[in-house]
């Protein structure tokens, strides 16, 4: 079963929090697939990654760029693992499906959006029933992640 981490965004938006997690993924020598809900959001996230500050460039691509197998970070609304990623990031309420073959799944949700919180709760119940190993992470006052009791 895939290890699943729920990341409850309370201090920073997805566009600020996700790059930190992606950078750590690449530092570990892993590839990432970021699944969004639609192509428009994929392009918005890709643009945000291009505008990232001096912390460094994150190599990534979308369907607009092509060549998924060559992209260390592939951003898509589609199911499947087009870039052979070991880590899956589910964002904006993307369905928690197709986790087989991933070492780690990180599900990020906006704590300020009641619908996102409710969706994440449903995904927690679903994934727990499927037998995945779950953990819950929340941002502290400084935006750093800490593991909390969840469920």
TrEMBL record:
Q: Output the Gene3D superfamilies linked to this UniProt entry.
A: DNA polymerase III subunit chi
Molecular function terms from GO: DNA binding; DNA-directed DNA polymerase activity
Its Gene Ontology biological processes? DNA replication; positive regulation of DNA-templated DNA replication initiation
Q: Name one Pfam family in it.
A: DNA_pol3_chi
Q: Which NCBIfam families does the record cross-reference, listed alphabetically?
A: PRK05728.1-4
Recorded protein name is DNA polymerase III, chi subunit
According to its UniProt entry, this protein's organism is Tistlia consotensis USBA 355
């Amino acid at each position: 079963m895939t290890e699943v981490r729920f990341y409850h965004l309370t201090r920073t938006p997805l566009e600020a929090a996700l790059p930190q997690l992606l950078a750590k993924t690449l530092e570990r020598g892993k590839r990432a697939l970021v699944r969004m809900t639609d192509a428009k959001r994929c392009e918005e996230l890709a643009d945000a990654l291009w505008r990232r500050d001096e912390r460094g460039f994150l190599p990534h691509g979308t369907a607009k760029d092509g060549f998924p197998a060559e992209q260390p970070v592939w951003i898509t609304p589609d199911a499947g693992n087009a870039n052979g990623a070991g880590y899956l990031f589910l964002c904006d309420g993307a369905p928690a499906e197709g986790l087989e073959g991933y070492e780690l799944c990180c599900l990020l949700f906006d704590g300020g959006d009641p619908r996102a919180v409710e969706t994440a709760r449903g995904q927690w119940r679903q994934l727990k029933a499927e037998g995945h190993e779950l953990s819950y992470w929340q941002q502290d006052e400084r935006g750093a992640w800490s593991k909390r009791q969840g469920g």
